[in-house]
Amino acid sequence: MIHSSLSFLKDELNTFITLKDPFNSAGALVNPVVLTNIVDQENHLYKIGGDYVLMTLVNTEEETVGKSQLPYLRTPEDKVHVVNPDIKLNLYIQFSAYSDIVQGVVPPYERSLMLLDQVVYFFQYRNVFTRNEHPALMNAGLEKLIIDQVSLTFEQLNHLWATLGAKYLPSVTYKCRMLAFRESVAAAEAPFITEISIDDKKQKG
Prior knowledge:
The protein is an alpha+beta fold. It has one domain. The protein contains 4 helices and 9 strands. The chain has helices at 2-20, 108-125, 135-139, 154-164; strands spanning 33-35, 51-62, 72-74, 79-82, 87-99, 128-130, 144-150, 171-181, 189-191. It has a 6-stranded mixed β-sheet with strand order 1-2-5-8-7-6. A 3-stranded antiparallel β-sheet has the order 3-4-9, with no helix packed on it. α1 (2-20) crosses α2. The longest helix has 19 residues, at 2-20. It is globular. The mean pLDDT is 83.
């Protein structure tokens, strides 16, 4: 579900930026959002030669608020599957903008800032995605995605980029919540208890 969620957000953001066409490039800017690490193991940028928004998963955390503690799942046939409670995950996603296009009026750094603007505009325009409006979520088994912006301190930002092993790029970080994970492997099941009887006969002694 992590991959499905990130791929869905990438596709939605790509559609938005392509339609907005911030550089007035008449279709030249197509699918600039790329789901990738920022650098490879040798500290080389993964994407060069264009305008890009590098979308990177930087952290995950379990959402414990509202977590069910009941290890049971009721089926439509009134049986009970013994399962562990769902795991609800929050994803921390960093969007880093990069450009090395030197032709034209707008310099590369300013182009990267314009791309980053589009990320902020998009999640300001829509930060809740439900399966009723987006069949792709339903197909992936996702109920809802909620996107919130995360404000990092300078210290946190410094640690994050040091961990990523890259030089700083214009970026913004968002928290995507909540993904529910449940393993679909068949588990033990039993019927519901619908009646209780008491044997009041005394044992003969």
